[in-house]
Structures are given as structure tokens and as C-alpha cells.
Amino acid sequence: MSKGHDSDHGHDHGQDHEEHSALSETALRVRALESLLVEKGLVDPAALDAIVDAYQSKIGPRNGARIVARAWSDPAYKAQLLKDATSAIAGMGYSGAQGEHMVVVENTPSVHNLVVCTLCSCYPWPVLGLPPVWYKSSAYRSRAVIDPRGVLREFGLALPDEVAVRVWDSTAEIRYLVLPERPAGTEGMTAEALADLVTRDSMIGTAKVAAP
After folding, report:
1. 37-73 burial, b if ≥16 CB within 10 A, otherwise e?
2. Strand locations in 1-140 (E)
3. CATH architecture of 2-204
């Protein structure tokens, strides 16, 4: 296992922690308001859960899926994406806070990439939407570095010993997106159809893209 990003980013995370604290206070206010609305019967909690799930699992990651699909079907775009991800992603209209400085790492038959934020929960919101709860958990943040193969097995992904696992530590300055391997049997598919195959977890590195 090799660690993809070894720079000392304590200062960056300190700034991010300040932002995180502010967000936590806001989250508490939102929870209090949500509880009040539910208690008064003005909001259906199941409907709220469905909306959050849509943004976390469908709407947000859809942006990243379109990027991956284009890279699979357009070699020139793929080269640009791997060379200057920030510019290539912005060129598709996906940019903004939490995605100012992007790096894309490519999975190959011999290398598998996994993204984590070891000190907080830095995450590329413009391309992946809201971070999943497990990504922010202390267990994932610590074990992804110490035992990445074990973590991947828990996600249902068992890699052969000959496949190297590289762990990339996102920071407040740099956020990573995994370009998963294109599955077999997708020749001739349109970019939109390819995007339908790409999942959020495959762009974090905890899964592969399944064949259609």
C-alpha cells in the first residue's frame, strides 16, 4: 500500500475544521427545525430522507459520472482530465466551493486508488454531491490508510495481491476523484448510458463499475 499524498496539511485542515465547526452549528439548527416541523406534522420524515438520499446518491454523483463517461469515450478529454483535472472538470460546468483544486487518479488492471480524508471530511462536492456518512466516520478515515484492502473487502471488493492499492488523502487544498476502469461489454454505448453505470462509490474507490 502506498499513500498518494504525503504533504503536511495541518494548516489546511485547521481552516477546514473551522468551516466544519460552523457547519456543525448550522446542522444542529437544521435538525432542531426539522424536528419541530415533523412534530407539528408539516413535514413527512420519510420524504425528507428521500430528498437527502437523492442528493447524496443520485443528483450529486451524476456530475462525476458524466465526467467519467466522457473520459472513457473521449481520449483527448481523458488526457486533459489526468493532466489538469480542475480545468477539465470546470470545462464541463462543474466547479465551485469544495472543488477548486481537483486531481483525478486512474484505476488500471494493476493499480486501484482509494480516496479518504484522514483528519476531517474533505470531499469534492461539485462532482460527488454530499459525502456519505461512512466517509466522515473515524473508522473509515483511520482504517483506509492502515488496512485499505480490509476496508475494500468490507465494501465487497476483494482485490488480487498483485494489484497495488494507492490511498489518496484529500485536504482543504486538494480533492481527489477516482477514474474507475471501464467495464467490459460497454463498447458502442453512449456517454449517457455509460454514466448510468458509474456509482459514487466507484469514484471514491470503494467499488468498481459493474458490467451492464
Report:
1. eeeeeeeeeeeeeeeeeeebbeebbbbbbbbbbbbbb
2. 2-3, 102-106, 111-116
3. Alpha-Beta Complex (3.90)
Sign of CA dihedral 117, 179, 55, 124: positive
Would residue 120 show up in a list of annotated catalytic residues for this protein?
Answer: yes
In angstroms, rounded to a whole number, what is the distance separating the alpha carbons of residues 208 and 202?
5
The single-letter DSSP state of residue 53 is H
Single out the catalytic residue among 2, 95, 117, 137. Answer: 117
* Sheet architecture: strand order including 111-116: 2-3, 164-169, 111-116
Distance CA 131, CA 64 (A): 13
Is 121 labeled as catalytic in the residue annotation?
Answer: yes
- Environment class of 181 (CB within 10 Å of its CB; exposed 0-12, middle 13-18, buried 19+): middle
Tell me if 198 sits within 8 A of 34, measured CB to CB.
no
Catalytic-role residue among 21, 24, 73, 120: 120
* Residues 10-65 pLDDT 10s: 334 444 444 444 445 655 666 677 677 777 777 787 876 776 665 566 567 999 99
* Catalytic residue (choose from 2, 24, 87, 121): 121
Domain ranges of the chain: 2-204
**C-beta of residue 131 within 8 angstroms of C-beta of residue 103:** no
- Stronger pLDDT, 4 or 208, i.e. the higher one: 208
pTM over 0.85: no
- Element of type H or E holding 90: helix 85-90
